[in-house]
UniProtKB/TrEMBL annotation:
Coiled coil: none annotated. Its EC number is 2.7.4.25. The keyword 4Fe-4S does not apply. Transmembrane segments: none annotated. It catalyses: CMP + ATP = CDP + ADP; dCMP + ATP = dCDP + ADP. GO terms for molecular function: kinase activity. InterPro entries: Cytidylate_kin, Cytidylate_kinase_dom, P-loop_NTPase. Its main location: cytoplasm. The lineage of its organism: Bacteria, Pseudomonadati, Pseudomonadota, Gammaproteobacteria, Cellvibrionales. The keyword Transferase applies. It comes from Microbulbifer echini. Keywords: ATP-binding, Cytoplasm, Kinase, Nucleotide-binding, Transferase. This is Cytidylate kinase. Residues 11-224 form the Cytidylate kinase domain. It is found in: Cytoplasm.
Amino acid sequence: MNDTNRLPPVVTIDGPSGSGKGTIAKLLADRLGFTLLDSGALYRAAALAALQKEVDLADEAVLTQVAKDLDVRFLVSDGRLQVLLEGRDITNEIRMERVSMAASTVAAIPGVRAALLQRQRDFRLEPGLVADGRDMGTTVFPDAPVKVYLTATAEERARRREAQLREKGVSVSLRDLLDDIRARDAQDMNRKASPLAPAEDAVELDSTGVGIEEVLRRVLALVQERTSS
Ligand SMILES: Nc1ncnc2c1ncn2[C@@H]1O[C@H](COP(=O)(O)OP(=O)(O)O)[C@@H](O)[C@H]1O
Ligand SMILES: Nc1ccn([C@H]2C[C@H](O)[C@@H](COP(=O)(O)OP(=O)(O)O)O2)c(=O)n1
């Protein structure tokens, strides 16, 4: 701990859509007093910028430029993360299903990922960072002392999304949500650039049928174990 080059610790939480990454990352960051990185929000903001500019989502060069030029800022207001694109609040808009799928498509482009890499690493501030995404443990923070790979069955993840949307007053069929989840899983896992996969040193945690409090307890225990030396 006397090493002056020591970087702030990072807890990475990777996994597929609906596994609970965002929920657990937020609770964990609050509990530890760490900064929070929602890396998916960066890809979602890039996708929304591309959709607004009506860019062809197959045009890798133009999409890479969109990611390089991305004017996105994160603000924490009343304990909630706000995402601003060119100064405009896009927090709710980026959660729409068409943006989710576009984010997954845009995120498969190596140039887009390279353009967003340093921005993500810049979140590594004292006293520490909790980073949620797909490649936090494999590519962005490979030296993180604590890596979690959170999963749940596709059926359970679709049910969670349905409940989340119902609470917002949006009614979507479970069948459609399950199809969307499977399509995004396949796209995120099968791409060449930083595919969704557990890091070799990640602890896999299946949250199917496990409540949020219990998942948080297990992750906190892991943080204790990995950082108390
Ligand atoms: N362990 C869990 N058990 C039940 N519901 C959960 C659990 N973890 C998260 N949820 C709920 O599932 C939904 C999706 O969680 P979220 O954190 O957004 O997932 P992700 O960030 O992995 O896409 C939210 O409504 C959240 O409250
Ligand atoms: N580190 C990351 C984070 C997200 N992505 C891509 C792939 C995902 O399908 C989209 C959206 O990610 P996000 O974490 O916001 O999505 P979910 O909340 O898990 O549904 O972005 C990525 O490729 N790498």
